Amino acid sequence: MRVSIVGSGYVGTTIATAFAELGHEVLAVDIDQSVVDTINRGESPIHEPGVPELLAKHSGDRIQATTEYDQILNTDVTFLALLTPSDENGHINTSYIEAATESLGDTLASKETAHTVIVKSTVIPGTTEDVIAPLLESASGKTVGKEIHLGMNPEFLREGFALEDFRNPDKIVLGAETPRTHDQMEAVFTPLIEQVDTHVIRTGIREAEIIKYANNAFLATKISLINELGNICKEYDVDTYEVADAIGKDDRIGERFLASGVGWGGSCFPKDVAALIAAAREKGYDPTLLSAAVEVNAKQPARMLELLASHTDLSGKRIAVLGLSFKPGTDDIRGSRAVPIIDELLTRGATVVGYDPVATANMREQYPDLSYADSAKSALSGADGAVVVTDWDEFSAIDAETFGTMAQPIVIDGRRIIDRKQIESVTNGRYEGLTW
Ligand SMILES: NC(=O)c1ccc[n+]([C@@H]2O[C@H](COP(=O)([O-])OP(=O)(O)OC[C@H]3O[C@@H](n4cnc5c(N)ncnc54)[C@H](O)[C@@H]3O)[C@@H](O)[C@H]2O)c1
Ligand SMILES: O=c1ccn([C@@H]2O[C@H](COP(=O)(O)OP(=O)(O)O[C@H]3O[C@H](CO)[C@@H](O)[C@H](O)[C@H]3O)[C@@H](O)[C@H]2O)c(=O)[nH]1
């Protein structure tokens, strides 16, 4: 099948490589010439395990990238994988997907055969039918339901595991209003469905739109709940991870997403929970629990610095921030918990030295004046305290000798990645876990 994907960011590039691997001819369309050139050179515009190898394999053959929308005319189905960021009030900003939809509609005006358009971006219920459909119709002069088949297929991949998640999905959600559009959408996934055991869920467009938000809201709230329980456990000197291990054995709770600590970030949870809250309020419903989940999450970085401040005054001190990305396996710093941590450290007059295996360049763009170390070892050397913000594996290998090079070996671990016992000889009771 000939598949075009508009938007070659994290989602667009990942699904482009995955669809090519499934045997489809893929056209990646992006307005950013450098993204297009990178893909056409067989290199990856994103940091994502496995994606560079697949681009090297398929680029110039099954994957072509372009800035020219006209080339979409040679494809049968188009995915819209544009960013839908938050505006200042938490609502989604649909301007990028609207601009792309208009360009797509202009292009489809000269298409002689029917075309299927699938919204991949995360959008609030009603966006596909009330915003995208009318734009497509006015720009193309065609009718949705006749010459244009419109569906919504939310994406559930996690950064750092994007290809793995694509290949082993818990579910594939196909939102459409006619069996014919459902069939056309499913046809794109048939080579995958034949390979794996998954749930293919046929539903309506609005249902598909909100399933995505419900999924993320549930997971973010689950983490906030374990963090709240963790804060209580800490007051009783109880290790929340032992508690999580036990409660996770209850199938109704489940073992995943119970890692407590400094909280959730990323390009999705913060903006998606904010968008759902904003949309609900617009409908006159005030979502108490979701607002509380956000509040608990916002407080965890401050709790971490309170723990640090209980061991040392922060003003004028050199503090190592270990981990800058929002989670391991990615260079993405969007919504990273490192950001409020750094802001608060600077407000309290500390000197910050940051280290991350891959995200330093991105953080440097946001904080050009911070000091950045090229290893955890050099970040720790001479530091008066360290906070561990991201659970990169390499942090678990930092030994007592390295922590011993700190001016004051005080370690506050926000991810339970450091082995307390292993570094006890130098920290001498000044290792603290956020929830253990
Ligand atoms: N990042 C994730 O892990 C993830 C997972 C699931 C769902 N989502 C959702 O998928 C959508 C895309 O997210 P992302 O992280 O891939 O975004 P992104 O910001 O990484 O990529 C968006 C791309 O769209 C391009 N673009 C912007 N305007 C364009 C236009 N008019 N025409 C063509 N290209 C244009 C940009 O240059 C960029 O390359 C969002 O709605 C997001 O919420 C993201
Ligand atoms: O037990 C846990 C699990 C995660 N996190 C944090 O939660 C955030 C999000 O982690 P994760 O879900 O692994 O990463 P994302 O790539 O943001 O993926 C989420 O957001 C995507 C975009 O919508 C969805 O597609 C995925 O299904 C959803 O997991 C990160 O800051 C993690 O550190 C925890 O604190 N504890």
Automatic annotation (TrEMBL):
Signal peptide as annotated in the record: none
Reaction(s) catalysed by this chain's protein: UDP-alpha-D-glucose + 2 NAD(+) + H2O = UDP-alpha-D-glucuronate + 2 NADH + 3 H(+)
Amino acids binding NAD(+): D30, T84, T122, E159, K271, R334
SUPFAM superfamilies, alphabetized: 6-phosphogluconate dehydrogenase C-terminal domain-like (SSF48179), NAD(P)-binding Rossmann-fold domains (SSF51735), UDP-glucose/GDP-mannose dehydrogenase C-terminal domain (SSF52413)
Gene Ontology biological-process entries: polysaccharide biosynthetic process
Cited Gene3D superfamilies: Cytochrome c1, transmembrane anchor, C-terminal, NAD(P)-binding Rossmann-like Domain
Keyword tags: NAD, Oxidoreductase
Pfam name, any one: UDPG_MGDP_dh_C
Active site: C268 (nucleophile)
Family: Belongs to the UDP-glucose/GDP-mannose dehydrogenase family.
NCBIfam families for this protein: NDP-sugDHase (TIGR03026), UDPGDh_AglM (NF041297)
Protein name in UniProt: UDP-glucose 6-dehydrogenase
Organism name: Natronocalculus amylovorans
